[in-house]
Write a structure and sequence with these properties.
alpha/beta, Rossmann fold, five-stranded parallel β-sheet, 5 helices
Length: 150
């Protein structure tokens, strides 16, 4: 598929670890299929961003959410449950990106409405490979909904 025909994807990354944020930004920048990567560092910020509240009132809605489970203020499960209960944003696909390998976290994530569960790889090389596959799937195979402007 011609890259010019691939619609841009805007992603919201909810992640509190600065090292992980830097590695994810670097990996996405190298791949160039995800056009915009916005970052929030806790669950309350994630919901405010998605609902376009407070300082996020003028943000562009993302087409996809990357959500860490272990965050301050509201954890990823709380964010996922609130997001999926909100009619204005529940259509957004949410990909859990976490270090957890617990089966109960996988089951709960899918039960709460996650579109995918990905375990964070260690090291930039492994993250780059994962990012390339992630981007190919979400940018070229899957169809994400166009952002709904309010």
């Amino acid at each position: 598929m011609d890259q010019a025909l691939v619609p841009p994807i805007e992603v919201l990354l909810a992640e509190d670890n600065d090292d992980d944020i830097l590695m994810i930004r670097t990996a996405f920048a190298r791949s160039k299929l995800i056009n915009v990567l916005n970052v929030v560092k806790d669950g309350e910020e994630a919901l405010a961003y998605l609902r376009r509240q407070g300082r996020y009132v003028d943000t562009h809605p993302p087409g996809l959410v990357l959500l860490d489970l272990n965050m301050p203020k509201k954890n990823g499960f709380e964010v996922l449950q609130e997001l999926k209960a909100d009619p204005a944003i529940r259509h957004l696909p949410v990909v859990i990106l976490t270090t957890s390998r617990q089966e109960e976290d996988v089951v709960r994530s899918y039960a709460d409405g996650a579109a995918s569960f990905i375990i964070k790889p260690e090291g930039l090389g492994a993250l780059q490979t994962l990012t390339e596959r992630f981007e190919l799937y979400w940018a070229r195979v899957a169809r994400v909904p166009h952002p709904i402007e309010r």
